[in-house]
Each structure stands twice: as structure tokens, then as C-alpha cells.
Amino acid sequence: MGVVRRKPDWGRPPWKIDFRPSSRGLPTEVDYAIVGAGFTGLAAAAWLRHVAPGKSVAVFEARRIGAGSSGYTGGIALGETAAGDLPGLGDVLAGLPEILRALRVDCEFETGGVYELTHRPNRKDAGARSSPIQWADGGELRVAEEVPGGSVNPGKLVSGLGRAAERLGAMVFEHAGVEKMEYGEPVELMVRGSVVRAEQALVATNAMSLELSGLAERAEPKFTLAVATRPLTAGQLEALGLGRRRPFYTVDLPYLWGRVLARNIVIFGSGLVHLGNWRELEEISIRKGVARELVGRLKERVRRLHPALRDVEFSYTWGGPMLIGEGWRPVLVRHPRTRNVLVLGAYSGHGVALSVYLGRWAAEVMARGRKLPRWNERREPIVWKV
Fold first, then answer.
1. What does the buried/exposed string (b/e) look like for 94-115 if buried means 16 or more CB atoms within 10 Å of the residue's CB?
2. What's the DSSP call for residue 44?
3. Angstrom distances, CA of residue 270 to CA of 122, 227, 345, 358
């Protein structure tokens, strides 16, 4: 069971991760081992040390922190899962700032609402209200609802969680992929040719290493694309209906999402590269093949949305992995081979706030015996909606 090791050609998003963990030797034994140093793994590591400061925690990342979904997301923070609200989920948008405050993480978290857009403006949910957004996108694209949500700076969130984990005493290792796991008591992880024993472990690799997580049969990895414009004028933003700087996403097809960044840069995202196996993520390049074609279509689509975008130029192009679970529900379960390993992931594109929120939940399962959520108990086939 391998891990992705070399850096794939996914492009460059408009933020950076500026935290690098301290260099140290691998431990031979820890209380808690975490596989994957994205939002989920770093949040869980920091929270474990926050609630159980006497326990040792080690995070193992195959490349660099944030090298997977977390570093290549769009940064839209939503309060529900892709399947909507789930029994026992709680208030994600209230929980996220609680975690950020407790861990002293500044990631430019902003709330104020998110626009849900529809291509069918005559639907009852769109009503007869005036819409700040009126775009041409295979029909008239308008605001149907404004829902709770906001945005973060993904680079600052990854960096802040990494700093918090290390400041609280967790050990974070980059270029330390887990090549193999033995599911005994203790759990044994093979890292850099050495064995690390852990009383409990969390696999937080999302779309990567699906054999390691045991999710190969119950979730589907995909690759999605995004572009960012060069800075727009305040007048252009107003003409586009983005003067309030609300993030947006469509609730019908063709799918489109986006948000306004600092300096009036606007992100637009859409498109899926379908994969036969998660390992194909290593071979994807946004400069060739299907990914390049989808990027070209996305840029042309953006230029057709509104006269204010007709001649727009783009400053960033990138893509990133996502994992879609059964019924579009996130997965927080015990590994099928042992109760000593938790698996967390499959956010189906709604992982920015949810991954940190559920990372805390996973930490409390490990350290405090908190109960697991029940929404994964009934399994359903994936029905593709995008």
C-alpha cells in the first residue's frame, strides 16, 4: 500500500503555506499517530495536545503539509455537509471559530453568507426577488438563496494549524509517508523504513492512500479545477453582483463556484477529472490532457458570464483532489481492520470548515471516548450529481 511521493503538476493557487515543521528524528513509539498533514490531520493533532497534553502525538505527511486537498481548495467555508445537515452534526460554523480561537489560528475567517445560484430563475426558491448576480451561463444564472457560510485563506489555515500543533507539542514530519500499517495492538506504521508504534492512529489522507484508509470501496476520488482572475476594479465587482464579496456556488448544473479574494481577484471553479484509481492523481497535470482541456473551457465560460469579464485575464490556474463518499456524507469511522485506527475524510467538496470541525471530533474520540457520528452506519451507492 503506497503513498504519493513526488509532487504532481497541479498548478499554483493564489496563497502559500509558510510553515515548515522543525527537523527531528522519528520516534519509535507514540500515543497517537496521524497520517496526513492537511486541515484534518493538523487540527486533530493540535486538539489532541490541547485536551491531552500528557500524550505524545506524531503527524506523518508523505510530501509537505497541505500538499493534498487542503492546499488546493478554494477556501469556501460552509455550515453543512454536501448531503446537508446530518443527525448530531451540530453547528459547524460556530464550532470552527471556537477551535481557531482555542488554537490561536488566524486564517482570515470571514462569515457573512454565501450565495446559492440557480440556472432556473423561475423556481420558487428564486422567486421574483431582484438578484445581485445576473450572469449568462447556458441560461440566466441568478441568486436563489443566501445561506450561512463564509471563507478562509487556505494557506494561512494550514500554516496556522501546523504552528498550533507544533507549539502544543505535536511532532510533525514531512516527506514521511506511511508505506505500510500493521493493525495490531499497538498499531505499527512503517515510515522511512522504520517502525513507529502507536496506541491509536487517525488516517486523514482524504483522496490519497485509499488502501491505507480502507475507503477504496466506499468513496470516489476526483480532481477539480479552478482559475483566478487578475485584479478587477471595484466597478467590475459591482457590475458582477460581487460588491458584497459573497462566495457563491450553483445548486444545479452546470456547476460553478467562486469567491472574491484580496486585491479584487475572483476565483471561479468547475469541472471534474474522473479517475479509475486515486494513484492517477500523481500523473495529472493541468498543462496536458483532460485537465488542460477543462481549464480552457472554464476560462472561456467565465469570459461569457458577463460583459465585465469579456476580456478578463487570469493570474492563477490550479486543480486539486476531492473525495466523494456514499450519499455525499463525510466518513468518520473506525478502520475495518481495527478499532484502534480512525478514518476521516470524504468531504465531497465541503471540507474547508468541516475538516477542522471533524478533526476536533476525531481527537475527542481518541482522547476522551466521544461517540462516533451515526450517519455512516447505513451505506448507500454514490449517485453522481456533478
1. ebbeebbeebebebbbebeebb
2. H
3. 24, 9, 21, 26
Q: Where are the alpha helices (DSSP H) in 134-258?
A: 154-167, 210-213, 234-240
Is-contact 319 286, C-beta < 8 A?
A: yes
Please give the Cα distance from 344 to 360 (Å, whole number): 11
Mean pLDDT of all residues belonging to the chain: 93
Report CA 148 to chain centroid distance, whole Å.
Answer: 18
Residue 175 in this model has a pLDDT that exceeds 90: yes
Domains, the chain, ranges and CATH?
113-147+219-324 (3.30.9.10)
Q: What is the pLDDT of residue 7?
A: 77
Closest CA to 379 of 215, 241, 238, 194: 215
Q: Give the integer Cα–Cα distance in Å for 73 and 225.
A: 9
Rounded CA gap, 68 and 297, in Å?
24
Phi-psi region at 346: left, alpha or beta (left = phi > 0; alpha = psi -120 to 50): left
- Asked whether the predicted pLDDT for residue 342 surpasses 80, the reply is yes
Mean pLDDT of 14-30: 97
Residue pair 348/69 in contact by the 8 Å Cβ criterion: no
- The string of DSSP codes covering 224-263 is EEEEEESPPPHHHHHHHT-TT---EEESSSSP-EEEE-GG
Residue 303, phi then psi, degrees to nearest 5 = -65, -25
Q: Which residues have CB under 8 Å from 14's CB, separation 6+?
A: 228, 261, 265, 267, 315, 316
Distances 74 to 45, 77, 252 between C-alpha atoms, Å = 23, 9, 19
Q: Provide the pLDDT confidence category of residue 121 given band limits of 50, 70 and 90.
A: confident
Judge whether residue 218 has pLDDT over 80. yes
Count CB-CB contacts under 10 A for residue 334: 15
Kindly report the length of the chain: 386
C-alpha cell read off for 378: 447505513
pTM of the model: 0.94
Q: Mean pLDDT over residues 222-230, rounded?
A: 98
Name the residue among 342, 275, 360 with its Cα closest to residue 42: 360
> How deeply is 290 buried, as exposed, middle or buried, from its count of CB atoms within 10 A (0-12, 13-18, 19+)?
middle
